[in-house]
Amino acid sequence: MERGLTILNAHDLPDPLVLSTPTIIAQLDHPALVADLSGRLSRIMPEGTTVTVLVGVGTAEQRVDHADVASLDPELASIATTLYIDAKPGGLLGAIHTMARLRRECPWDREQTRETLVPYLFEEAAEFADAVAAVKDDEDWSGIGGVSDELGDVLLQVLFQAVVASERGEFDLDDVAEGLRQKLVRRHPHVFGDVVADSPEQVHANWKEIKESEGSGVSESLLDRVSTHSSALAAAHQVQQVMAEVGFDWTEVGGVRDKLTEELSELESAKGHSEQLDELGDVLFTVVNLARHLDIDPDLALRSAVSRFSARVRLMEESGPLAGLDHAELESRWNQAKRQQ
């Protein structure tokens, strides 16, 4: 028993289900419970994991079976059926253990620092955004699987940074999770306290007020809140949002459309590369403003457009290489691909 023992009631399993010690799951008294447990365990345990099923415990017909965790027989359900699990951890706990081992034993992982890992976080976040933009609809399970996979890569960066910090005696993953939990509770007094917030706008206003009260109180500019590491689209959106909060904004989307027309006209009249650069920047800045007023994430919208364009190009290439085709042939291929989408 030096490894400990966890006893769980199948009717009241924790979520997430973390199996860090040998575990007994009792009260498997309904086929639906067995089927649901089999599905949950197969998602967090290595493929092919075998578990022990104690059937008819305390009766004359009691027996011990062994079964693949992914194919537990619902017909084994009864008040006297119990599951015993003693396997390598999977799911979140398994990922944490795997990351810790990689840090100890992999030469590349060992040499990484907090600073060298930062570019990978940006890269993985961008790939996650690409995966989200590539999902066609709620029935696109292949695309949704891609989102899950890329989100795992983002999680890896969180685990990696936590391991590095833990080695330095600064904080560990539990500190990160508990800090987040406390922040969520603190910033949602309408859920965990007695503050009333009946609309998303009230929630946002409360969040902003609480967040500002948590800061140092020293700020030279409203724009100090804008991240210097954001993409240009994100930075434009953040700047505009900050100014909108103090009332410097169009009251309706029509004003933004008029501004966009004005900026396009100025771009058309621009002379020389430098002036064109400035005017095109103004056009893009206004497009971000338009997206904000339409409640659309400009980065996600652009990624979605790139994804659609790329898919259409690949359809064009199915008819043969594009290099060497004249404009009319390329246009024909494009229109054909467009009809196929």
Q: Could you give a short description of this structure?
A:
This protein has 341 residues and is α+β, with helices and mostly antiparallel strands. The protein is 59% helix and 7% strand.
Count helical runs: 13
How would a textbook summarize the main sheet? 5 strands, mixed
CATH superfamily of the domain at 93-186: MazG-like
How large, in whole angstroms, is the Cα Rg? 28 Å
**Unreliable residue stretches:** none
Residue fraction in strands: 5-15%
In the CATH hierarchy, what is the architecture of the domain at 93-186 at level 2? Answer: Orthogonal Bundle
The average pLDDT value, as a whole number, equals: 90
Name the shape in a single word: extended
CATH topology annotation of the domain at 93-186: Helix Hairpins
Tell me roughly what share of residues is in helical segments. 55-70%
* Structural class by SSE content: alpha+beta
Task: Explain what you see.
This protein is α+β, with helices and mostly antiparallel strands and about 350 residues long. Among the domains are: about 5-90, Methyltransferase, Cobalt-precorrin-4 Transmethylase, Domain 2 (2-Layer Sandwich); about 95-185, MazG-like (Helix Hairpins, Orthogonal Bundle), CATH 1.10.287; about 300-340, no CATH class. The chain is about 60% helix and about 5% strand. The chain is built from 13 helices and five strands. The protein has a five-stranded mixed beta sheet, with no helix packed on it. A hairpin with a 7-residue loop joins strand 3 and strand 4 (about 65-70). The protein is extended, with a radius of gyration of 28 Å.
